[in-house]
Backbone:
């Protein structure tokens, strides 16, 4: 093999023909040719099977064609020319290793698996792998399912979603900020379609605020969240019917915008479904085009599911609507999100008392090491509320 | 398991009646049913004191007693439900205040403190009657009521004498309204018998009446037997139930057949005569109740009302106040149509779940709904568009904005073409109001929680509420709230996902929750440690090594619900136990305030810092007690709303 003759003219022509066919097909380099396919393509270069055979054999020898078996029939697929030249310089072990990696395709193959399959000396495999990697024939990728294992695949291949974990993974790591932004975008989109707003402007400096809004006034005063007493209802506080914000960013403007969230009449409309959300996300400019093209409906559905579990969206019919009182972050909003969310955690009767969160609750008992009298949390709790 | 509950009940009884009864209750709770002698032995209390303590317990219906025959020894056992219900008093008074007004709330509060009360004695306590015969034995309870109030030394100011301005008419109509709504019920003799003995007695009666050969073997006879038993149970229950007709004072003489156990009606004959003499001309419309009618508060009825309130709050969270108010009215309408949260006697009669649920029309809802609530404001397009059919409401939007610019509240904008105060002035308004109500109900139906359901029958539409499903929703929501408050948002996400998706492996959990596997592992372990999640082992081979094992995580809501219930019991007990500890800190000033020469003249007799300390103490106590009330709401939700929990049956 080391002394390989130069590729003949008809062989070259056939190879070019096959490459063209492969490139035009949807599978690209993965396109598999059966004998009949090649015969059809090779009408110019070889008139019958007798002439075709040496040509194919020559290409295989030059590593320009890869031989494999599919359903007991022989078939061939093309290799890039530069890869072929690199391969032809390899020794037998390396070629064997290469063929296994090639077979694994977009899924990639573990190093350990490779050693087991090739059945050659593990050290030789490692050596071969290093050489192949340096020659840019293969590359190691991070597999999301087994981050500790080394996975290899051909250099020119793009790892499949199984390996990378899908759109939400960036180099094997979860892209949390992408998920976060996407969630916010989805909430924005759904919110706009699922509730009607009425805006009422009101003069800020009023001597007597109207009774309806009087209770909520402290919200506007310092921009601070109002502390709620332990006896306030959770449900009451959770539903933020009225949102206050200073209109524009102009503090001189004496009006306050009161936004009241109005329900749309039941059964009057279809709320956006996961598909609709997907088409919105992929057509908007908010997300990089390459990323947007990659996003699938299933992935969007996953994000939507998480939002449902987080009580941000609720399912209505086939579509989704934002839960009442859920706000999206306006673009460029840098406020502390946790602080805002934390305000909502009112808990219930059990979790409000120290016992509900007591680390030694199980030990607590009359005459025990901890009891109602010796408890330190109660004192703190009672002081807090005073 | 019952340990936490027993502890809580003991603390409650100690606060309510006193230490002696609490000790007896604890002994009975520990040992089951006992005779007086064995009880005295176990509790190490002299027999004489045991008898007094038991009497106190029985007055409050905290103990049950039954003797099989005349001479047989009487066995005593505890009544868990009533004992726990001591913790629910404040919530019930709140509820009655909301629905029937302050006056009713006050009366219910008094009846709750007494356990049960004779109408005549109640009326007397309110200074409504010239002194009459006191003969029912309830009076003893009335006598020691005010001092012991809540065991805190500073008795609540809700003494019966507080409202002198109540008229006889008000008293009786309120009482009647409460009876009719089911908040109050008549007490019959059977209320004191343990259910198991009652069951035995019923069986015995049925056998001796209908099965002369005393044999109930064989499928056919078994079935007949069961039917007969249920029929008798229902009959007895109806006998014991209040009815406008039978319990009117003037007709107290009517005696129902088969009523061997009641004695009050005989007396009613005696009192009934002069009872009517007090009524004025204008008050004739409501006939007076018999003085000897003994009433108590029906807790299961109140549980139902609490459930309605909770559902309304839940709907409010998702759909806003106005829709929730409509829902509340619907629930209240439906409440009138069912007997209890879960009626086990009715259950075996109906074969179809759907049809057994009560239904109500929009018109019925409109009757209960507060007419001051403006229905149009919260649904887009309803406010100004009179026709609901297309509901697009393009016209509806405009006026709001116009008025908004002038700084006028939107409510005013609607009043020009519609008299909002009371939409009943004309037929058209009424129709509008009904269609608005229907729109709100449709919104409730559309919601993913299915708050109600429309059933079309004979052209008119009725609305139904699937209580079992919604109760489950409420329980889940409560469990979720607890998880979120304790372990954070992410833990809640994981728990809800596992509940929805079933058993999942670690990696699947991570990918579904869109989180890193490392973070997920931490959450899963924490939740498992606290009993929220559980993992099922699935070994890959026979070796069962942990490293070669899959772990499928799951969340069993039922188990978590019971875990939280037990924890709530315990936390309630601790909260109540903390009160005396806190009280100790303020002991000197409380004692001074209670001295006979100071009491009633605190303002002049106490120093400024003392007054301050007293105020602080009241705040502390109030805080602890209101927290107990909140936990009771949770217990009601986790345990009582479904009506299927049997942990309290004696």
Residues:
């Amino acid at each position: 093999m080391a002394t390989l003759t130069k590729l003949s003219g008809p062989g070259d022509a056939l190879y070019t023909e096959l490459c063209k066919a492969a490139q035009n097909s949807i599978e690209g380099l993965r396109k598999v040719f059966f004998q009949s396919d090649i015969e059809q393509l090779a009408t110019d270069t070889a008139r019958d099977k007798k002439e075709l055979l040496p040509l194919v054999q020559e290409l295989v020898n030059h590593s320009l064609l890869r031989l494999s078996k599919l359903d007991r029939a022989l078939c061939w697929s093309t290799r890039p020319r530069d890869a072929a030249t690199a391969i032809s310089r390899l020794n037998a072990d390396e070629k064997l290793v290469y063929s296994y990696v090639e077979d694994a395709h977009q899924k990639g193959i573990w190093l350990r698996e490779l050693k087991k399959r090739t059945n050659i000396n593990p050290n030789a495999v490692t050596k071969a792998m290093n050489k192949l990697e340096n020659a840019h024939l293969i590359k190691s990728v991070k597999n999301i399912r087994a981050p500790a294992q080394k996975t290899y695949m051909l250099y020119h291949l793009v790892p499949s979603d199984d390996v990378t974990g899908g759109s939400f993974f960036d180099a094997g790591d979860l892209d949390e900020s992408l998920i976060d932004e996407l969630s916010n975008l989805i909430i924005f989109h759904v919110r706009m379609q699922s509730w009607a707003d009425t805006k009422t402007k009101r003069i800020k400096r009023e001597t007597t605020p109207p009774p309806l809004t009087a209770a909520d006034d402290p919200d506007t005063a310092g921009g601070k969240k109002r502390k709620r007493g332990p006896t306030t209802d959770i449900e009451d506080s959770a539903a933020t019917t009225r949102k206050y914000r200073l209109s524009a960013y102009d503090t001189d403007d004496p009006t306050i915008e009161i936004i009241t969230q109005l329900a749309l009449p039941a059964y009057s409309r279809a709320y956006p479904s996961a598909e609709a959300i997907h088409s919105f996300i992929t057509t908007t400019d908010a997300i990089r085009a390459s990323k947007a093209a990659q996003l699938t409906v299933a992935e969007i559905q996953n994000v939507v599911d998480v939002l449902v579990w987080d009580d941000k969206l609720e399912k209505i019919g086939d579509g989704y609507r934002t839960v009442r009182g859920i706000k999206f972050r306006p673009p460029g909003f840098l406020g502390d999100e946790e602080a805002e969310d934390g305000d909502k955690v009112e808990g219930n009767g059990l979790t409000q008392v120290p016992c509900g969160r007591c680390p030694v609750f199980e030990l607590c008992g009359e005459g025990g090491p901890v009891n109602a009298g010796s408890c330190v949390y109660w004192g703190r709790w009672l002081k807090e509320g005073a | 398991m019952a340990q936490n509950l027993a502890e809580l009940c003991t603390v409650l009884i100690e606060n309510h009646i006193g230490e002696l009864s609490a000790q007896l209750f604890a002994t009975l709770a520990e040992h089951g049913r006992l005779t007086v002698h064995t009880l005295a032995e176990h509790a190490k209390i002299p027999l004489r004191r045991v008898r007094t303590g038991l009497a106190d317990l029985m007055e409050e219906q905290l103990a049950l007693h039954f003797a099989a025959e005349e001479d047989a020894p009487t066995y005593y056992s505890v009544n868990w439900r009533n004992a726990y219900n001591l913790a629910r008093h404040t919530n019930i008074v709140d509820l009655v205040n909301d629905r029937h007004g302050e006056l009713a709330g006050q009366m219910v509060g008094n009846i709750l403190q007494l356990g049960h009360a004779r109408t005549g004695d109640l009326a007397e306590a309110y200074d409504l009657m010239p002194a009459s015969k006191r003969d029912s034995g309830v009076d003893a309870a009335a006598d020691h009521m005010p001092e012991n109030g809540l065991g805190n030394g500073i008795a609540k100011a809700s003494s019966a004498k507080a409202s002198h301005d109540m008229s006889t008419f008000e008293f009786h109509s309120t009482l009647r309204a409460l009876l009719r709504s089911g908040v109050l019920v008549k007490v019959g003799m059977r209320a004191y018998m343990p259910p198991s003995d009652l069951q035995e007695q019923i069986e015995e009666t049925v056998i001796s009446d209908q099965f002369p050969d005393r044999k109930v073997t064989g499928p056919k006879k078994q079935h007949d037997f069961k039917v007969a038993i249920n029929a008798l149970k229902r009959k007895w229950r109806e006998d014991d139930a209040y009815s406008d007709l039978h319990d009117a004072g003037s007709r107290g003489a009517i005696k129902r057949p088969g009523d061997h156990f009641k004695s009050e009606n005989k007396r009613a004959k005696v009192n009934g005569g002069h009872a009517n003499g007090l009524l004025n001309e204008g008050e004739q419309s409501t006939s007076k109740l018999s003085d000897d009618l003994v009433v108590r508060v029906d807790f299961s009825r109140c549980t139902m009302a609490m459930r309605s309130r909770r559902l309304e709050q839940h709907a409010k969270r998702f759909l806003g106040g106005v829709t929730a108010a409509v829902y509340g009215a619907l629930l209240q309408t439906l409440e009138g149509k069912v007997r209890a949260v879960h009626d086990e006697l009715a259950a075996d009669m109906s074969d179809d779940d759907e049809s057994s649920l009560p239904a109500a029309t929009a018109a019925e809802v409109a009757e209960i709904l507060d007419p001051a609530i403006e229905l149009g404001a919260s649904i887009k397009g309803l406010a100004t568009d009179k026709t609901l059919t297309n509901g697009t409401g393009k016209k509806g939007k405009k006026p709001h904005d116009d008025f908004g610019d002038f700084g006028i509240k939107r409510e005013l904008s609607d009043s020009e073409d519609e008299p909002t105060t009371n939409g009943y002035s004309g037929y058209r308004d009424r129709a509008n109001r009904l269609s608005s109500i229907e729109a709100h109900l449709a919104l409730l139906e559309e919601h993913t929680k299915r708050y109600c359901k429309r059933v079309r029958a004979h052209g008119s539409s009725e609305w139904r509420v699937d209580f079992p499903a919604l109760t489950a929703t409420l329980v889940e929501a409560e469990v979720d709230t607890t998880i979120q408050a304790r372990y954070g948002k992410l833990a809640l996400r994981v728990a809800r996902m596992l509940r929805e998706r079933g058993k999942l492996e670690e990696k699947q959990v991570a990918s579904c929750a869109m989180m890193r596997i490392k973070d997920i592992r931490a959450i899963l372990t924490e939740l498992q440690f606290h009993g929220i999640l559980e993992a099922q082992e699935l070994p890959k081979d026979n070796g069962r090594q942990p490293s070669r094992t899959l772990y499928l995580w799951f969340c069993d809501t039922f188990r978590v619900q019971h875990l939280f219930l037990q924890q709530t019991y315990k936390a309630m007990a601790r909260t109540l136990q903390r009160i005396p500890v806190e009280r100790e800190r303020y002991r000197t000033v409380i004692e001074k305030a209670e001295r006979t020469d100071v009491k009633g003249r605190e303002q002049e007799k106490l120093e400024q810092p003392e007054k301050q300390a007293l105020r602080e103490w009241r705040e502390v106590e109030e805080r602890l007690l209101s927290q107990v009330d909140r936990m009771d709401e949770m217990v009601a939700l986790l345990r009582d709303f479904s009506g299927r929990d049997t942990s309290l049956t004696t």
Observations:
- Chain B has six domains: 3-86, 101-182+245-297, 189-240, 300-412+419-465, 470-555, 579-640.
- Chain B touches chain A through 81 residues (CB under 8 Å).
- The mean pLDDT of chain B is 75.
